[in-house]
Protein backbone atom coordinates (compact mmCIF):
# COMPACT_ATOMS: atom_id res chain seq x y z
CA UNK A 1 0.00 0.00 0.00
CA UNK A 2 1.03 3.57 -0.59
CA UNK A 3 1.73 5.44 2.65
CA UNK A 4 3.73 8.54 3.54
CA UNK A 5 6.31 7.28 6.04
CA UNK A 6 8.96 10.01 5.79
CA UNK A 7 9.62 11.53 9.21
CA UNK A 8 6.97 9.36 10.84
CA UNK A 9 7.74 5.78 11.99
CA UNK A 10 4.56 5.98 14.05
CA UNK A 11 4.05 2.23 13.71
CA UNK A 12 7.63 1.51 14.84
CA UNK A 13 7.75 3.41 18.15
CA UNK A 14 5.56 4.44 21.06
CA UNK A 15 4.89 8.10 20.33
CA UNK A 16 2.00 8.47 22.81
CA UNK A 17 4.04 10.54 25.33
CA UNK A 18 4.05 13.33 22.71
CA UNK A 19 0.30 13.58 22.81
CA UNK A 20 -1.80 14.17 25.90
CA UNK A 21 -5.09 12.90 24.46
CA UNK A 22 -4.81 9.54 22.73
CA UNK A 23 -6.88 8.76 19.68
CA UNK A 24 -9.50 6.04 19.99
CA UNK A 25 -7.52 2.98 18.92
CA UNK A 26 -10.53 0.68 19.26
CA UNK A 27 -12.73 2.58 16.82
CA UNK A 28 -13.56 0.68 13.65
CA UNK A 29 -12.49 3.43 11.33
CA UNK A 30 -12.60 3.25 7.59
CA UNK A 31 -11.64 6.10 5.28
CA UNK A 32 -14.79 5.78 3.19
CA UNK A 33 -17.15 6.57 6.06
CA UNK A 34 -17.21 9.02 8.94
CA UNK A 35 -17.41 7.58 12.45
CA UNK A 36 -20.59 8.51 14.25
CA UNK A 37 -21.38 8.28 17.95
CA UNK A 38 -22.93 4.83 17.67
CA UNK A 39 -19.81 3.36 16.07
CA UNK A 40 -17.57 4.88 18.71
CA UNK A 41 -19.78 3.34 21.39
CA UNK A 42 -19.46 -0.06 19.76
CA UNK A 43 -15.68 0.32 19.75
CA UNK A 44 -15.68 1.15 23.45
CA UNK A 45 -17.77 -1.93 24.19
CA UNK A 46 -15.36 -4.07 22.20
CA UNK A 47 -12.44 -2.68 24.19
CA UNK A 48 -14.12 -3.51 27.49
CA UNK A 49 -14.42 -7.17 26.50
CA UNK A 50 -11.04 -7.48 24.83
CA UNK A 51 -8.07 -9.53 25.97
CA UNK A 52 -5.63 -6.97 27.36
CA UNK A 53 -1.91 -7.60 26.77
CA UNK A 54 0.35 -7.84 29.81
CA UNK A 55 2.98 -5.60 28.21
CA UNK A 56 2.58 -1.94 27.25
CA UNK A 57 3.81 -2.08 23.65
CA UNK A 58 1.34 -0.07 21.59
CA UNK A 59 2.53 -1.44 18.22
CA UNK A 60 3.34 -5.12 18.63
CA UNK A 61 4.22 -6.91 15.36
CA UNK A 62 3.39 -10.61 15.48
CA UNK A 63 5.94 -12.87 13.78
CA UNK A 64 5.26 -16.25 12.23
CA UNK A 65 6.90 -19.48 13.33
CA UNK A 66 9.14 -19.48 10.26
CA UNK A 67 10.21 -15.90 10.97
CA UNK A 68 11.06 -16.80 14.57
CA UNK A 69 13.20 -19.67 13.29
CA UNK A 70 14.89 -17.35 10.80
CA UNK A 71 15.83 -14.84 13.50
CA UNK A 72 17.12 -17.64 15.71
CA UNK A 73 19.28 -19.01 12.88
CA UNK A 74 20.73 -15.53 12.32
CA UNK A 75 21.71 -15.14 15.97
CA UNK A 76 19.09 -12.45 16.54
CA UNK A 77 17.21 -13.95 19.49
CA UNK A 78 17.78 -10.75 21.54
CA UNK A 79 15.56 -8.89 19.05
CA UNK A 80 12.51 -11.00 19.96
CA UNK A 81 10.07 -10.98 22.87
CA UNK A 82 6.74 -12.69 23.71
CA UNK A 83 3.34 -11.13 24.37
CA UNK A 84 0.74 -12.70 26.68
CA UNK A 85 -2.80 -11.50 27.42
CA UNK A 86 -5.20 -11.44 30.31
CA UNK A 87 -8.13 -13.78 29.69
CA UNK A 88 -11.59 -12.26 29.32
CA UNK A 89 -12.90 -14.68 31.90
CA UNK A 90 -11.72 -17.67 33.94
CA UNK A 91 -13.22 -20.15 31.47
CA UNK A 92 -10.82 -19.17 28.68
CA UNK A 93 -7.67 -18.82 30.79
CA UNK A 94 -5.16 -20.52 33.05
CA UNK A 95 -3.96 -19.15 36.40
CA UNK A 96 -0.24 -18.22 36.50
CA UNK A 97 1.45 -15.83 38.94
CA UNK A 98 -1.95 -14.74 40.25
CA UNK A 99 -3.21 -13.74 36.79
CA UNK A 100 -5.67 -15.45 34.50
CA UNK A 101 -3.74 -15.72 31.25
CA UNK A 102 -5.53 -16.28 27.93
CA UNK A 103 -5.21 -19.91 26.89
CA UNK A 104 -6.32 -22.52 24.36
CA UNK A 105 -7.12 -25.98 25.72
CA UNK A 106 -5.42 -25.05 29.01
CA UNK A 107 -2.25 -23.85 27.27
CA UNK A 108 -1.21 -20.19 27.67
CA UNK A 109 -1.03 -18.53 24.24
CA UNK A 110 1.34 -15.81 23.13
CA UNK A 111 2.73 -13.89 20.17
CA UNK A 112 6.40 -13.31 19.42
CA UNK A 113 7.36 -9.83 18.26
CA UNK A 114 10.20 -7.34 18.06
CA UNK A 115 11.65 -5.60 21.12
CA UNK A 116 11.63 -1.83 21.53
CA UNK A 117 14.67 -0.52 23.40
CA UNK A 118 14.83 3.20 24.22
CA UNK A 119 16.23 5.34 21.40
CA UNK A 120 16.57 9.11 20.84
CA UNK A 121 14.11 9.99 18.06
CA UNK A 122 12.50 13.11 16.61
CA UNK A 123 9.50 12.04 14.51
CA UNK A 124 6.71 14.24 13.10
CA UNK A 125 9.09 17.16 12.37
CA UNK A 126 9.91 17.68 16.02
CA UNK A 127 13.00 19.84 16.52
CA UNK A 128 14.34 18.05 19.58
CA UNK A 129 14.74 14.30 19.99
CA UNK A 130 13.11 12.39 22.84
CA UNK A 131 13.86 8.99 24.37
CA UNK A 132 11.11 6.64 23.22
CA UNK A 133 10.70 2.86 22.95
CA UNK A 134 11.52 2.18 19.29
CA UNK A 135 11.78 -0.99 17.22
CA UNK A 136 15.15 -2.67 17.51
CA UNK A 137 15.54 -2.37 13.73
CA UNK A 138 14.57 1.31 13.46
CA UNK A 139 17.39 3.73 12.60
CA UNK A 140 16.61 6.65 14.92
CA UNK A 141 18.32 9.14 12.60
CA UNK A 142 16.55 8.40 9.31
CA UNK A 143 13.49 6.75 10.92
CA UNK A 144 13.82 3.92 8.41
CA UNK A 145 13.91 0.17 8.97
CA UNK A 146 17.35 -1.41 8.82
CA UNK A 147 16.00 -4.70 7.45
CA UNK A 148 13.42 -3.35 4.99
CA UNK A 149 13.82 -5.39 1.83
CA UNK A 150 15.78 -8.06 3.67
CA UNK A 151 14.62 -11.68 3.76
CA UNK A 152 13.91 -11.24 7.49
CA UNK A 153 11.65 -8.21 7.08
CA UNK A 154 8.45 -9.43 8.83
CA UNK A 155 5.43 -10.13 6.63
CA UNK A 156 3.24 -8.26 9.12
CA UNK A 157 5.34 -5.10 8.69
CA UNK A 158 5.09 -5.41 4.91
CA UNK A 159 1.31 -5.85 5.07
CA UNK A 160 0.69 -2.84 7.30
CA UNK A 161 -1.65 -0.96 7.20
CA UNK A 162 -3.52 -3.15 4.68
CA UNK A 163 -4.42 -5.73 7.35
CA UNK A 164 -6.00 -3.05 9.53
CA UNK A 165 -8.08 -1.75 6.63
CA UNK A 166 -9.17 -5.26 5.70
CA UNK A 167 -10.40 -5.74 9.27
CA UNK A 168 -11.93 -2.22 9.33
CA UNK A 169 -9.68 -1.21 12.20
CA UNK A 170 -8.07 2.17 12.75
CA UNK A 171 -4.54 2.34 11.33
CA UNK A 172 -1.56 3.93 13.02
CA UNK A 173 -1.38 6.27 10.02
CA UNK A 174 -4.81 7.62 10.94
CA UNK A 175 -3.86 7.99 14.60
CA UNK A 176 -0.80 10.01 13.60
CA UNK A 177 -2.92 12.15 11.26
CA UNK A 178 -5.39 12.85 14.07
CA UNK A 179 -2.64 13.77 16.51
CA UNK A 180 -0.22 15.72 14.31
CA UNK A 181 -2.04 16.55 11.08
CA UNK A 182 -0.82 15.87 7.57
CA UNK A 183 -1.63 12.89 5.42
CA UNK A 184 0.01 9.51 6.03
CA UNK A 185 -2.50 6.97 4.70
CA UNK A 186 -2.61 7.56 0.96
CA UNK A 187 -4.95 4.71 -0.01
CA UNK A 188 -8.45 4.02 1.28
CA UNK A 189 -8.76 0.26 0.92
CA UNK A 190 -6.74 -2.92 1.22
CA UNK A 191 -5.55 -4.72 -1.93
CA UNK A 192 -7.84 -7.40 -3.30
CA UNK A 193 -5.05 -10.00 -3.24
CA UNK A 194 -4.19 -9.42 0.44
CA UNK A 195 -3.19 -12.54 2.33
CA UNK A 196 -1.32 -13.52 5.49
CA UNK A 197 -3.97 -12.42 8.01
CA UNK A 198 -3.89 -15.84 9.74
CA UNK A 199 -7.11 -15.52 11.71
CA UNK A 200 -8.78 -18.07 13.99
CA UNK A 201 -7.46 -21.61 13.77
CA UNK A 202 -5.13 -20.54 10.94
CA UNK A 203 -3.12 -18.54 13.46
CA UNK A 204 -2.60 -21.39 15.94
CA UNK A 205 0.92 -22.71 15.73
CA UNK A 206 1.71 -20.33 12.87
CA UNK A 207 1.48 -16.95 14.66
CA UNK A 208 -0.34 -17.70 17.91
CA UNK A 209 1.72 -20.11 19.99
CA UNK A 210 0.45 -22.30 22.84
CA UNK A 211 2.84 -23.23 25.65
CA UNK A 212 2.38 -26.93 26.52
CA UNK A 213 3.69 -26.56 30.10
CA UNK A 214 2.02 -23.68 31.98
CA UNK A 215 4.13 -24.40 35.09
CA UNK A 216 7.25 -23.44 33.11
CA UNK A 217 5.87 -19.88 32.91
CA UNK A 218 5.72 -19.29 36.65
CA UNK A 219 7.57 -16.04 37.25
CA UNK A 220 7.64 -15.29 33.53
CA UNK A 221 4.15 -13.80 33.59
CA UNK A 222 5.02 -11.54 36.52
CA UNK A 223 8.19 -10.38 34.76
CA UNK A 224 6.27 -9.80 31.52
CA UNK A 225 3.86 -7.47 33.30
CA UNK A 226 6.77 -5.70 35.01
CA UNK A 227 8.75 -5.28 31.77
CA UNK A 228 11.59 -7.30 33.26
CA UNK A 229 11.85 -10.43 31.13
CA UNK A 230 15.17 -12.25 31.29
CA UNK A 231 17.04 -13.88 28.44
CA UNK A 232 15.96 -17.26 29.82
CA UNK A 233 12.31 -16.14 29.84
CA UNK A 234 12.47 -15.12 26.21
CA UNK A 235 14.40 -18.25 25.24
CA UNK A 236 11.67 -20.49 26.71
CA UNK A 237 8.99 -18.78 24.66
CA UNK A 238 11.06 -18.61 21.48
CA UNK A 239 11.77 -22.33 21.76
CA UNK A 240 8.05 -23.14 21.98
CA UNK A 241 7.31 -20.86 19.02
CA UNK A 242 10.06 -22.47 16.94
CA UNK A 243 8.73 -25.93 17.85
CA UNK A 244 5.09 -25.21 17.00
CA UNK A 245 3.15 -26.84 14.15
CA UNK A 246 0.73 -24.64 12.14
CA UNK A 247 -2.92 -25.42 12.75
CA UNK A 248 -2.27 -27.64 15.78
CA UNK A 249 -1.19 -27.67 19.42
CA UNK A 250 1.64 -30.10 18.60
CA UNK A 251 5.24 -29.09 19.34
CA UNK A 252 8.43 -30.72 18.10
CA UNK A 253 10.87 -31.80 20.81
CA UNK A 254 13.75 -31.46 18.37
CA UNK A 255 12.89 -27.90 17.38
CA UNK A 256 12.19 -26.96 21.01
CA UNK A 257 15.66 -28.08 22.10
CA UNK A 258 17.25 -26.44 19.07
CA UNK A 259 15.36 -23.18 19.62
CA UNK A 260 16.16 -23.06 23.34
CA UNK A 261 19.85 -23.74 22.77
CA UNK A 262 20.05 -21.23 19.93
CA UNK A 263 18.29 -18.51 21.92
CA UNK A 264 20.53 -18.99 24.95
CA UNK A 265 23.66 -19.09 22.80
CA UNK A 266 22.81 -15.66 21.45
CA UNK A 267 21.29 -14.27 24.65
CA UNK A 268 21.72 -10.69 25.74
CA UNK A 269 22.01 -9.41 29.30
CA UNK A 270 19.13 -10.40 31.57
CA UNK A 271 16.03 -8.25 31.40
CA UNK A 272 16.60 -4.52 31.19
CA UNK A 273 19.61 -4.54 33.47
CA UNK A 274 23.09 -3.38 32.50
CA UNK A 275 26.11 -5.41 33.57
CA UNK A 276 28.45 -2.71 34.83
CA UNK A 277 31.41 -5.06 35.04
CA UNK A 278 31.02 -5.83 31.33
CA UNK A 279 30.76 -2.11 30.54
CA UNK A 280 33.95 -1.34 32.46
CA UNK A 281 35.84 -4.20 30.82
CA UNK A 282 34.66 -3.25 27.34
CA UNK A 283 35.56 0.42 27.74
CA UNK A 284 38.96 -0.53 29.12
CA UNK A 285 40.06 -2.66 26.17
CA UNK A 286 38.05 -0.91 23.46
CA UNK A 287 36.14 -4.06 22.62
CA UNK A 288 32.58 -5.26 23.09
CA UNK A 289 31.97 -8.57 24.84
CA UNK A 290 29.26 -9.75 22.47
CA UNK A 291 27.74 -13.16 23.11
CA UNK A 292 25.24 -12.90 20.26
CA UNK A 293 26.34 -13.40 16.67
CA UNK A 294 24.72 -10.21 15.41
CA UNK A 295 24.81 -6.57 16.41
CA UNK A 296 21.36 -6.69 18.00
CA UNK A 297 21.97 -7.79 21.59
CA UNK A 298 24.93 -5.54 22.29
CA UNK A 299 23.15 -2.57 20.70
CA UNK A 300 20.12 -3.09 22.93
CA UNK A 301 22.35 -3.23 26.00
CA UNK A 302 24.12 -0.05 24.92
CA UNK A 303 20.87 1.85 24.32
CA UNK A 304 19.61 0.80 27.75
CA UNK A 305 22.91 1.80 29.38
CA UNK A 306 22.88 5.21 27.72
CA UNK A 307 19.24 5.82 28.67
CA UNK A 308 19.92 4.92 32.31
CA UNK A 309 22.90 7.25 32.51
CA UNK A 310 21.54 10.10 30.34
CA UNK A 311 19.49 11.90 32.97
CA UNK A 312 17.67 14.75 31.21
CA UNK A 313 20.08 14.66 28.26
CA UNK A 314 18.86 13.36 24.92
CA UNK A 315 21.63 12.78 22.37
CA UNK A 316 21.47 13.43 18.64
CA UNK A 317 19.84 10.46 16.86
CA UNK A 318 22.96 10.32 14.68
CA UNK A 319 24.64 8.58 17.61
CA UNK A 320 23.06 5.42 16.22
CA UNK A 321 26.10 5.17 13.95
CA UNK A 322 28.17 4.40 17.04
CA UNK A 323 25.59 2.30 18.87
CA UNK A 324 24.27 0.20 15.99
CA UNK A 325 26.21 0.59 12.75
CA UNK A 326 29.60 0.25 14.43
CA UNK A 327 28.37 -3.12 15.68
CA UNK A 328 27.37 -4.26 12.21
CA UNK A 329 23.84 -2.94 11.76
CA UNK A 330 22.83 -2.32 8.12
CA UNK A 331 22.67 1.33 7.12
CA UNK A 332 19.53 2.95 5.73
CA UNK A 333 19.46 4.95 2.47
CA UNK A 334 17.81 8.12 3.77
CA UNK A 335 14.76 9.66 2.16
CA UNK A 336 16.59 11.66 -0.51
CA UNK A 337 17.92 8.42 -1.99
CA UNK A 338 14.37 7.10 -2.34
CA UNK A 339 13.01 10.07 -4.27
Name the helicity range.
25-40%
Which spans of ≥5 residues are poorly predicted at pLDDT below 50?
21-49, 268-292
Secondary structural class: alpha+beta
The portion of residues forming beta strands comes to: 5-15%
> Which whole number gives the mean pLDDT?
84
Number of strands: 9
Gyration radius from CA atoms, angstroms: 20 Å
Largest sheet: 5 strands, antiparallel
How far apart are the termini? 17 Å
Q: Can you tell me the overall shape?
A: globular
> What is the count of helical runs?
11
Topology as H/E string?
HHEEEEEEEEHHHEHHHHHH
Write the layout of secondary structure elements.
Blueprint: H1 37-48, H2 65-73, E1 80-83, E2 93-96, E3 99-104, E4 107-114, E5 118-121, E6 130-133, E7 138-139, E8 144-145, H3 155-158, H4 162-166, H5 172-180, E9 209-210, H6 220-226, H7 231-243, H8 253-265, H9 276-285, H10 296-310, H11 320-323
Antiparallel strand pairs: 1-4, 2-3, 3-4, 4-9, 5-6, 7-8
Helix pairs in contact: 2-7, 7-8
